[in-house]
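Incident log, structure service

09:12 report received: a user says their structure output differs between two submissions of the same chain.
09:20 pulled the input from the user's history:
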Amino acid sequence: MIGLRAGDINMSTVTITAADINKLRQMTGAGMMDCRKALTENNGDFEAAIDWLRKKGQKVAALRGDRDAKEGVVLAKTTSDSKTGITLCLSSETDFVSKNEEFIAFAQSIIDAAIANNVKSAEELNEIQINGAKIADLINDKLASIGEKIGISKFERIDAEFVSSYIHGANRMGVLVGLNKDHAEVGKDIAMQIAAMNPVAVDASSISPEAVERERAIIVDLIKNDPKMVGKPDDMINKIAEGKLNAFFKESTLMAQAFVKDGGMSVADYIKSKDSDLKVLTFKRVALG
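09:34 re-ran on a clean worker, output below:
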């Protein structure tokens, strides 16, 4: 027990609830007390609280776009011309529901409708009709019959010259990859790479300057807090930080990662070996926790 009551935790400028603390815990995996302190120290700012936790040496999710739903069905599908792909999660509270064949079929009918109607957002999808009924109403009907909360918790779309889709682990993860030209083999291999290695971006240049500076600041803070680095000059600290930042790019950006099917080459090398003009333009990854 950590002594949290149902009431709010009052601060001078913002009110932090137990739900806020639990949300940060779900986002980061950090302990409840650490999440409470992180939010308190950062006036309820979730992104600043995540940085605060990382600067304290905690390993939490950083930069990655996927925020995992706990249970549900994840599907990914492309249009017949492979120029558009959609991946979505129909979430549920328990795996008892998510593994039910009727629930999986319901999720499939939703993504089929999304593809057929060229849907661009979850909000738009909720208004689409299946057999004369809006998806939002069908979800509410399903909620009433199942007895637990369900909904479209994740929706991603890619448009490109060629889009490859991949579903991993019995509908627990969906991946979309956008390429500049048709290449089904590479599309599938890269989608499997993304599923396995969860990169944060296509390459270093795809990460915003603000995100890079944020990562660098965290690395510098961690180095300065290392007892072995006390009193060391700033130029040494900055040099070490650049090395760690480059290591981060190598581990966390798609093109620089070691190719999962052949660790002797990078993903960029693999793609070049198949077609020197082929490029990965973008990707999306939706996963259950």
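09:41 both user submissions now match this output. Likely a transient worker issue. Closing.
09:42 reviewer note: Confidence is low (pLDDT under 50) at residues 1-12. The CA atoms of residues 71 and 96 lie 9 Å apart.
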